Fold each of these.
Amino acid sequence: MVINKRGISPIIATVLILLITFVAISILAVFVVPFVSESLEGSEECFDILGHVTFDESPYNCNIGGTLGDGSEGERTGFSVRVGGEDISGLKIALYNEGSSEVVEFLNGTIGNTLSSKLRMLNGLFSEGLEMPKKGGVRTYVAEGLFEKIEVSARLKSGKTCDLSDSIELNTCLDNDAVSKILAS
């Protein structure tokens, strides 16, 4: 008894491979394209202001421990932020010290959250609102505590908070004028 074993023709095999490939691509497109579209939605705004929020070169970008303006001992960290875009309505500032972090978010003239009472303008008080730099301008802030690193992100007028815009590693203050202004209450 002879069994006639025949395979499928090369033309049918090629058509089946093309059909399986087409189905696989269609299934991926149904799931991947909407996911990527949703992920990219709104990122165009942040891309447009890339580089518009930076730390300014300043003698105030430092930290210090010492006698405060009221005579008590304390620690302070100063930093200067430059804003170059008009669509920026606020800042998100992350303060890092020895592996822990504190995040402060604020809009122009407000104290954004309870941690904002740990942040003041250079010549202001910790209980006052924080001012945003105007387009092309610089503002210097003082944080209560000794921080090694600070990161800043932009908050847009649309309400979206962008990813990291800039970061800075801080050292001990060496400029005497900067030390006296940072330690002032």
Amino acid sequence: MWDGVLRRGRLQLVLWSFFCVSLFCAFGLSAAGDLGDWYQGSRGYREGVADARDSRVPMMVLFYANWCGYCRKLQGEILTNDEVQEVLEDVVKIRINVDKPDARVLAERYGVSGIPALFYHKSMRHKPQRISTAGSPESFVTMVKRLLASS
């Protein structure tokens, strides 16, 4: 009798765990908060490149995955920060989820070997520069201001 109860309890635990993980992945509970006006995916990449070229403004491209803890930290603690969003206001911003089928070509083009991977384009004529995603919002703001000043 107890054997059947224990088996049923384990099954319920496994199913509940699967349900929670599925919700996490499906809804991207990535602690990303509100990132503002980021283009999304490969289609967004094409639109963002056109926008950056037409507006003659710098561009940033972020490669991430919903399951990546460092990506969630970057998006939840740094990119949602008010000062960071303010300094990125005049930058075209693009997010590429590496788990999407159409992201592979872009990730290869940028030479992405780990995530999160953040790239800065001074202009569309310049090669992208990989920038650090570690540190605090304050250090990120300082770095971005330095990059923008060199543009």
